[in-house]
Amino acid sequence: MKKNEWKERSGVLYSTNPDYNYNTGEITEEETLPKGGQLLRISLDKRSRGGKTATLVTGFRGTAADVETLGKWLRVKCGVGGSAKDGEIILQGDVRNKALDLLLKDGYSKSRII
Q1: Residues 6+ apart with CB under 8 A from 112
Q2: Residues 6 or more apart whose Cβ sits within 8 Å of residue 25
Q3: What is d(CA 70, CA 100) in angstroms, rounded to the nearest whole number?
Q4: DSSP letters of the chain?
Q5: Burial of 38 by CB count in 10 Å (0-12 exposed, 13-18 middle, 19+ buried)?
Q6: Where are the domains of the chain?
Q7: Count of other CB atoms within 10 angstroms of residue 72
């Protein structure tokens, strides 16, 4: 047991169940699917953005680091600002067609505009 791990396990002293597995509450990240297996949906969003339009790329299945990497690549290639978090990439402005073309050329064959 690591130093101070007992603090994280407060309330559990002993279990007689041989199949017992303590749940620490940590969320494991999903493994990133290959590019051809990603079903990315590209849409336009105007809600809760102060009247400005934003292009949303949703449906990415993978780690947070891979979402950040894809988001940065799209922002650079489209020449716009934006962010990537919670499996969703937000690009400033209406760049749906450009984003779709870039994703299809890069191997995300199941990408589509909705």
Answers
A1: 40, 41, 42, 100
A2: none
A3: 13
A4: --TTHHHHTTT------TT------PPPPPPPPPGGG---EEEEE-TTTTT--EEEEE---S-HHHHHHHHHHHHHHHT--EEEETTEEEEESS-HHHHHHHHHHTT-TT-EE-
A5: buried
A6: 29-113
A7: 14
pTM across the whole model:
0.73
Q: What's phi and psi for 107, nearest 5 deg?
A: 110, 0
Q: Which CATH class is domain 29-113?
A: alpha beta
List all residues 6 or more positions away from 77 whose beta carbon is below 8 Å from its beta carbon.
Answer: 98, 102
- Per-residue HEC secondary structure of 69-82 comes to HHHHHHHHHHCCCE
pLDDT (tens, 9 = 90+) of the chain, 114 residues, equals: 555 655 555 666 667 888 877 776 777 777 888 888 889 999 999 888 888 999 999 999 989 899 999 999 999 999 999 999 888 999 999 999 999 999 999 999 999 999
